[in-house]
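Troubleshooting log. The previous structure file for this entry was overwritten by mistake, so regenerating from the original sequence record. Sequence copied from the archived sheet and checked twice against the printout by T.R.
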Amino acid sequence: MLLPWLEASAFGKGGAKPPLRTGFFYLQNGIVPDAWHPTTEGTDYELTPTLEPLAPVRDEVTVISGLDRVFGGGTDVHAQCGSCWLTSSPPDVKLAGMLPIDATLDQVIATQYREETIFPSLELTCNSFEGDKEAKYFRTVSWYGPGSSATPENNPRTVYRRLFGIDWADPIERSILDVVSDDAKTLRRQLGALDQRKVDEYFESVRSIERRMDQLEKRAREQKDIPMSEPAGMPAERSAYIQMMGDLIAVAFQLDLTRVATMMFGPERWNAPQLYDGVFDKPQVHHTLTHAMDKKADALAKVKAIDRFRVAQFAYIVEKLRSISEGEGTLLDHSVLVLGAGLGNGNRHNYDHLPVVLAGRAHGAVSPGRFVRTPEGTPLANLWLSLAGMHDVERDRFADSTGPLSLA
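Regenerated output below.
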């Protein structure tokens, strides 16, 4: 049986604490700022109408406002706001065409655990539409490096089978590197220093894959039950769709299959109708509504309702992690979840005063239950630098950061 964290597990030996997990949840097309940001700082802040669904988990979340990003000219505002939300590249350094894209924070964190978890990272999206309606810059927030995106999976069933549907009926009994070891040594002696290094790096990458395969095989032999059943596919109800993806992240964290995940609530800018169940009787085109909300009261009311709907789904995911016991606390105590957007206002396309909600305590590195208003002009990258530090990523700067954000 796949087991969650136990006191007798490797994490529990010698009083070691469970690992830190981090999840990034992206809101496409921005928000309605006036209905989102609280006005009173500290622990006595009042939840705004948009954030009211967080009431049941109020003591577990930290609401942050005032964080900014700098827009790098020459690209579409929507393409850059999503694809560069987590980027580690300064806004004035163009690495992917005209875009300041380098390895994103989730992938930077994932490198810390490549030898410890089966899946270094997990990338999901709640985009149920087929076809490439937009370029990849609108469809992912995760990047391995310039021009190399981590394509997110949109089908819960496919994600489930990726995590648990391993068939090891005929496993390889011997490492392929062991089989070719003598030939490799002979080849290496015939190469120059640079080629020797390339061969060594290549063999190490293969060995790393084999180690993960060994982990997968061991899990498959032990696996008899999983904390959730296999999904049938993409649910028709949007709330069920988002929550199911959240459940998959929670289980992957619980079983330590991965320690970092990203999930897009939807792709940027796509003019595709979606039904927000329980809110509207018929599908709505969110992107179009955001561009009418400053002129039409009906459009503004609908965008506010969609914002509230999305916050409610995040609250469900937070509650899910809080319901899972782990060690002396909960899975949420040993995690930090980030809800945010790359636009401060979906109509004006501004990159300042971005919405951010953190959930979890990250082993005490975060003190939740309060609203924090950062000084004007504080880079969003300051938050990313702080999260990187929680995972022992040694960096003095992250993109255009000016220093870590105090969260304790």
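The CA atoms of residues 292 and 367 lie 38 Å apart. Archived copy saved in two places this time.
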